Amino acid sequence: MKVLFATSELSPWVKTGGLGEVAGTLPAALRALGLDVRVLVPAYPEMLRSFPHAEEIARPHGLGGLLPTPTLRQALAPDGTPLLLVDYPPYFNRPGNPYLGPEGRDWLDNHLRFGLLSRVAAWLGSDANTLAWQAEIIHCNDWQTGLAPAYLRYLPGPRAKSLFTLHNLAFQGLFDHASLFELGLPDGAWHLDGVEYYGFLSFLKAGLQLADAITTVSPSYAREIQTDAEGMGLAGLLRHRSERLSGILNGIDTQAWNPATDPHLFRNYSARNLDAKADNKTGLQRQLGLQQRTDLPLLAVVSRLTEQKGLDLLLEVAPQVLKLPAQLAVLGTGTLALEQAWAALAQRHGGQCTVTVGFNEELAHRIEAGADIFVMPSRFEPCGLNQMYSLRYGTPPVVRATGGLADTVIDAADQKHGNGFVFGPATADALLQALQRATAAWRDPVRWRALQKRGMARDSSWAEAARQYVALYQRV
Ligand code: ADP
Ligand code: GLC
After folding, report:
1. Which of 22, 302, 409 to mutate to test the pocket of ligand 1 (most atoms within 8 A of CB)?
2. Residue whose CA lies nearest to ligand 2 atom number 10
3. Is residue 24 very low, low, confident or very high in pLDDT (cuts 50, 70, 90)?
4. What's the pTM value of the predicted model, to 2 decimals?
5. Taking the alpha carbons of 53, 57, 59, 63 in that order, is the dihedral positive or negative?
6. Is residue 414 part of a domain?
7. Considering the domain boundaries, does residue 8 fall inside one?
8. Which ligand has the nearest atom to the CA of 247?
9. Are 284 and 224 in the same domain?
10. 388 and 429, same domain (yes or no)
11. Same domain for 308 and 219?
12. Is the C-beta atom of 20 inside 6 A of ligand 1?
């Protein structure tokens, strides 16, 4: 089966969050099952730097509207996955983040940039394709590739089937009516059953409405988004398409996130020599300027600092958490208000609380290994990867019972299966109570060790998810 995996991020080269991580690992797991999967991604500067010899294989022209003719280049990822790069320097040869300009605002032409990505995906699944390789399935991810199912729908002639994977309902890719023409979509697409959404063109809605199948990244999130409370305006559509919607829980990159071999750590460890984890705590405390105390639990966060992640709740109770007593280490970037509030807190509590504003892969690994307890109080969480890293690193997570967090973390009250701490309401009080329970459990070494080991034994590999995707491709 020939599958094109279309994505706007690709780890380890271009990543702002979980989507990049998934795109960097799932295709190889699918290839291991015998599928011919190729990854389509924009030729960002980092991609061209990493693959300077990526050869030109096509120039898809006549894409419609104001869409330019890009150069399609091919390269081979180190894991053997073929990469197809959409090279159009005026769109993609820009500094920084794939979505934002230097001032942190969306690029004004994002509809054209990701419209082009979507359009080339559809081209690869249509008769216009001039390559020897033609995709049978276009696997789209989030709004940035959400128009591909629309292009497939409105193109003449035989074409590929499409699967749309929703990683986050909050980002909907909304643009004004004029973009319909600029993107080369027919007037007929401006319809309730097409790409129109309350007077806007929505890339996300297009994908959800027009793909042959929809998945999201956990079974719980698949249920939650069909409720008006959590459907972010799209619950009706999702309920309408519920027979085509399923949840497939993400895996993680078990090679990159393996405490026994992780090159970023101060010292490697495994479930069999968990004592060695302690050196990672000391090393992390030293690196971050925290007091080198072994008698205090070190709580940690690695996250986007946004409303979704509920870190305002943690901020609210942070003074009480520090008085438990405990130490707190935060790594993240996000809204200016949250970044500033967290930085101010760290300043008031030097030595006991530290906040690193930035995106730092190595520090993320060191935190997973060095912390005692990981905190993820998300308001909603389609899947979440950090709680799975935490389980694997023997750093029991404290999570809110939502989406993928609810599907991966089992509360310690279950003495046989518990691997973390789960709380219900999205309130500062409920979070504080869960943190109190977690720090109390940490003070009981025998109980704690058992909790850590159960988490470390969880299988978070991609194997099961990959099998489910293959079954779905076959159905489609
Ligand atoms: P989301 O995609 O919603 O941000 P996920 O939990 O799925 O959440 O994935 C986040 C990914 O990004 C994880 O791999 C996490 O380690 C990484 N990450 C988030 N913020 C940072 C940061 N400031 N520095 C390094 N890695 C980060
Ligand atoms: C999104 C979600 C996150 C999920 C990730 C990968 O960014 O916010 O929960 O883990 O996509 O699917």
Report:
1. 302
2. 384
3. very high
4. 0.96
5. negative
6. yes
7. yes
8. 2
9. no
10. yes
11. no
12. no
Statement: residue 102 has pLDDT above 90: no
Together in a domain, 290 and 306: yes
CA of 76 to the centre of ligand 1 (A): 25
Q: What's 70's DSSP letter?
A: P
What are the structure tokens assigned to 225, written together?
């988004």
pLDDT at 103: 82
pLDDT, mean of residues 425-433: 98
For the segment 363-373, the average pLDDT, to the nearest whole number, is 98
Tokens (6 digits) for 370 = 């060095």
Best probe residue, ligand 2, of 143, 168, 306 (max atoms within 8 Å of C-beta): 168
Degrees (nearest 5) of the Cα angle 382, 19, 473? Answer: 85
Same domain, 100 and 164: yes
* In-domain check, residue 256: no
DSSP string, 380-426: --SS-SHHHHHHHTT--EEEESSHHHHHH--BTTSTTT--BEEE-SS
In a domain, 366, yes or no: yes
CATH number at residue 179: 3.40.50.2000
Q: Is 135 in the pocket of ligand 2 (CB under 6 A)?
A: no
Residue 242, number of CB atoms within 10 A of its CB: 13
pLDDT in tens, 255-292: 999 999 999 999 999 999 999 999 999 999 999 999 99
Q: How many domains does the chain have?
A: 2
What is the residue range of 441's domain? 271-456
Ligand 2 in reach of 406 Cβ (< 6 A): no
Q: Are residues 313 and 398 in the same domain?
A: yes
In the predicted model, what is the mean pLDDT of the chain? 97
Q: Is 141 in the pocket of ligand 2 (CB under 6 A)?
A: no
For residue 397 and ligand 1, the question of a CB distance below 6 A is answered with no
Check whether residue 469 and residue 320 sit in a common domain. no
> What is the reported pLDDT for 359?
93
Q: Residue 461, class by beta-carbon neighbours within 10 Å (0-12 exposed, 13-18 middle, 19+ buried)?
A: middle
Ligand 2 centroid to residue 444 C-alpha, Å = 33
* Per-residue confidence (pLDDT) for residue 96, from 0 to 100: 80
Residue to mutate (ligand 1; options 14, 99, 303; most atoms within 8 A of CB): 303
Q: What is the pLDDT of residues 212-239, one digit of tens each?
A: 999 999 999 999 999 999 999 999 999 9
> Quick check: 104 pLDDT over 90?
no
Same domain, 468 and 397: no
Classify residue 307 by burial, with Cβ atoms within 10 Å: 0-12, 13-18, 19+.
Answer: middle
Atom 5 (ligand 2): residue with closest C-alpha?
A: 18
